[in-house]
Amino acid sequence: MIRRNFAWRSVAVLGAASLALGACSNDKKEPATGSSSAATSAAGDGVLKVGTLLPQTGSLAFLGPPEFAGVKLAVKDINAAGGVLGKDVVESDTDSGDTSTDIASQSVNKLLAEKADVIIGAASSSVSLSVIDKITGAGVVQISPANTSDQFTTYNDKGLYFRTAPPDQLQGRVLGDLIVADGNAKVGLLVMQDSYGTGLAKSARAAIESGGGQVVAEEVYDPKAADFSAEVGKIKAANPDAIVMIGFDETKKIVPKLVEAGLTAKTKKWYFVDGNLSNYGDEFPKGTFEGAKGTLPGAKATDEFQKQLLTVDPALKDFSYSAESYDATILTALAATAAKSDAPGEYSKQLAAVSKGGDKCTTFKDCKALLDAGKDIDYDGLSGPIEWNDAGDPAEATIGIYQYGADNKYKNVAYQAGKIG
After folding, report:
1. What is the pLDDT of residues 175-188, one digit of tens each?
2. Rounded to the nearest 5 degrees, what angle is found at the Cα of 41, between the Cα atoms of 94 and 78?
3. What is the 3-state secondary structure (H, E, C) of 105-129?
4. Residues 243, 417, 320, 404: is their CA dihedral positive or negative?
5. What CA–CA distance (Å, rounded) separates 53 from 130?
6. Do β-strands 269-272 and 359-361 pair in parallel, antiparallel, or remain unpaired?
7. What is the pLDDT of residues 201-242, one digit of tens each?
8. Residue 189 · residue 219 · CB < 8 Å
9. Residue 80's beta-bridge partner residues?
10. By the 8 A CB rule, do 107 and 94 touch?
11. pTM
């Protein structure tokens, strides 16, 4: 069994109660992700090829634009600083879709045929689980900017899978503690049936119960269902103080059913997660989400970073996981620079090394200069310090807490940063 301890420290808490945080564990087959026993890897050709497997369609399509923008900005910055191995990085974009289609598998086939050295994605944990064996089995590195399922921590990935988003145990703990801190004694959970939904619900339930709260109903649903009246009815019958929605785009169908049942954000406290924390705006009547809260892994996207992202996508309105996507790409380029090779089997051994334990640097240009001078580096990214551990998980992470206004849009009210021991 692999056990991780979570020691937390509060950062920039703005108008939110302090949250008590604790420890969790997870089991699965060995070896752990990020281990040095990589598969027979694809051969390098001197040109670092970055493939993206991110949602252009499907239930997480709203996360696609900021993730694509993060990768594109990183490639732009890398090439402006001289590229990798003296050549520009090449990018190829594909759609991950969701688990209701076979789009991800087809996209991976395309990227592998193009001899991608790294595949950035997918956003959905379930989508990644459906293609991870195909990617790592081909000896190619996969780095997700948004996978949070605990299953990846000890997945048998041949040392080729990494992520810049933290495991769900962290978000679940923050979410559960937030719910209890808000004074909710009885909680109802509406949970999407997949590895992300049930895994996050498990962690949130543990935090709620350890904090003295009670989960009075947990309804696991098929996200492809046409109607959610039955699940909402069971939640109403349990009469919770708070309702937690753990899911994706199907949340747009659930919310009207809650309102019809009298379970509004004003009569019950609503909580969302990264899979459905979206600026719903005019999609719903004004005030529908007012007062609701949600959690989202990731540090604040600075004003300067947002401005730079808008240069590659002027239509961008959401910045979720943009920093994680940017950092995944930068770290790949730095590892290839350190290894003096774009071959996944070679540079994958440097991925953890360039994220910790050396001279601190925060841009590709500065980090590359240190590497060229023969220095060890420690890249601290826009999403956080990262510092990949032996499992390919970030050893430090930040979870943001957000609240909706009358305009059905959310704003940050607090950040919680913590380490995985």
Report:
1. 999 999 999 999 99
2. 55
3. HHHHHHHHHCCCCEEEECCCHHHHH
4. positive
5. 12
6. unpaired
7. 999 999 999 999 999 999 999 999 999 999 999 999 999 999
8. yes
9. none
10. yes
11. 0.82
